Amino acid sequence: MSRPLYRGVSGIGGKPLAAAEEAACYYDPKEPSENGIGGRGGARKRHLAAAAVRIGVLVLAAAALVGSVAWAGTLYAGRGAAARAAAAAAHRGYRRLQEQLVTDLLDIGELAGGGVRAKEAEVCPPEYENYVPCYYNVTDAVDVSDLGGGVVISYERQCTRDGRVTCLVAPPRSYRIPVRWPSGKGFIWKDNVRISGQEFSSGSLFKRMMVEEDQISFPSDAHMADGVEDYAHQIAEMIGLRNEFNFNEAGVRTVLDVECGFGTFGAHLFERDLLTMCIANYEASGSQVQITLERGIPAMIGSFAKKQLPYPYLSFDMVHCAKCNIEWDKNDGIFLVEVNRLLRPGGYFVWTSNLNTHRALRDKENQKKWTAIRDFAEGLCWEMLSQQDETIVWKKTNKRDCYTSRKSGPELCGHDPESPYYQQLNPCISGTRSQRWIPIEHRTTWPSQARQNSTELDIHGVHSEVFADDTSSWDSMVRNYWSLLSPLIFSDHPKRPGDEDPQPPFNMLRNVLDMNAHFGGLNAALLKAGKSVWVMNVVPTNAPNYLPLIFDRGFIGVQHDWCEAFPSYPRTYDMVHADGLLSLEKSHKHRCSTLDIFLEVDRILRPEGWVIIRDTAPLIEAARSVVTQLRWDARILDLDIASDEKLLVSEYKFESKHEKHDSANLSCIAMEPQGSIRRIGQVETAENRLGG
């Protein structure tokens, strides 16, 4: 593999850069021509030389193409299958030679032009280590010293392209590679997440974790007073089950955990084949989402505030709130209406709160709150199944006619979008007209639901043959990924350099993000292959919306606009995958630059994380030039000689994340051409890789 490109140093220090210095460290990603290196006169000569060589490349490539096509045509003039097969093989061989010729001549052109490269992106100042766009906005308006500068924190998502940060978010100096799964579920490195001393002194976090010298551990009984196992068992009994192992039999697979603490409930349910999505507000320190993701449990930033969550209606089998800070009685119960939108028919709302105790209800104000919540629940046609101690379980109705026979409650929605993207909360009842209105007890149970039969696929307008082809394709693709990239990436990697011998299942990958999930085929293939991963299936807002199908398969995901920041903290995913995303963005007139998108991928990728981009050859070649600006170690793989699609496989080397700390120079340093570094993007075929 090509040698890593390490990250250079930038203008950094203990305080934010001065305006002039900061301007020098930022650049416009949409104007790479202004990011050249060298003086005007020298640059002009080099550009002219490079242009001349590129013209020569085009002439030679065109001549080679015409010649090979003409020669192949003479072969095709022969008759018989053998002659046609020989012609096809020869044509493929010539195509590969042409590609190599063009690549080599472009390299010669680069050398002739003095090694002109696009300027590499600079590393952000230290105060950006936990930067979350759309929530955490660095400004000069407010001085909050413990956050490393002036900040404005918004619990409501507010994205703008003005003032976009174009530097690379680097980890803290003391960052360590996360602990492997499943050990990482039990403890994490303390310096990998942001927790302030004030929170320790308050004692607010000790009930849920134990802090040692360099690590944080999460005992299985830390989430609840009687232990998370007893708590889950209690919920199962309240539903009418023998224990939590029977949740799947009752139709429960996907759970939305509101303000999940640090993911202990979700970690426990994962062992029971339940998939839990944690959501919580943005938090500058002690973040529930950041710590949960660090443990390898699904989570994302989200809040019950003014906007709907970016999930389809009728998607979760259970919504869980254990002492979350949501005031369910406020705003005419609109937050409960949002829970109702997300719940499938027959789904459960589990609420644990101090408000539910007899002692709390002696207070008249608490009685008023409790009465309001109970009345709102009845108006939504929820049945209160049981109450034990602080916990109450409601069951959403599975009968549409309940809404016409009730005496009061929210009206049914007229305009009823299935997958709203951060739209304002709607005070009406959604999903009653949908074909997806199927009670959870009547749905195919996990794991069979991942396969979806023809009747279930018809609901989503997907033909069973198309679905079967997609499934077969992804099964094959995942096998190819493993054969091509092991032992570099996946869970069959024996160990990292310097590691002690790992215990099974040797899992380097845990958190996977699929940027253009389509039907969720990658997710299904990974699980079928027995990989201990979970996948955040992202459906772009400008792509066909198959997110409801993804949820109906028992997976989780979210809608997202990739011209905006993803609602997650830095360094939270081990692998980011994108199939056809570049083509999708190109078809929509490049609403934002490829560099914009890759900068965001760089932010959420863990050190030593991997990016796999699958797309057409021209777009992959173009993307390769972009990732050089991010200092990723990258190569191109040609999986199928007969296909125009290629893979761009990139690794974000851990060493490059720390290089910014190793220089005392406080000014931005322009990276000079590195002639000693091997060319990025070595073309390699499956045949060559496997020795075929």
TrEMBL record:
The main location class comes to membrane
Stated EC number for the protein is 2.1.1.-
Print the keywords alphabetically: Glycoprotein, Membrane, Methyltransferase, Signal-anchor, Transferase, Transmembrane, Transmembrane helix
Q: Which GO terms describe its molecular function?
A: methyltransferase activity
Q: Which Gene3D superfamilies match?
A: Vaccinia Virus protein VP39 (3.40.50.150)
- Spans through the membrane: 48-71
Q: Report the subcellular localization.
A: Endomembrane system; Membrane
Q: Which SUPFAM superfamilies does its entry note?
A: S-adenosyl-L-methionine-dependent methyltransferases (SSF53335)
Q: What's its top-level EC category?
A: transferase
Q: Which GO terms describe its cellular component?
A: endomembrane system; membrane
Q: How does it sit in the membrane?
A: Single-pass membrane protein; Single-pass type II membrane protein
Pfam families with a match to the protein in the record: Methyltransf_29
Q: Which GO terms describe its biological process?
A: methylation
Q: Per the similarity annotation, which family is this?
A: Belongs to the methyltransferase superfamily.
What is the recorded name of this protein? Methyltransferase
* Source organism: Urochloa decumbens
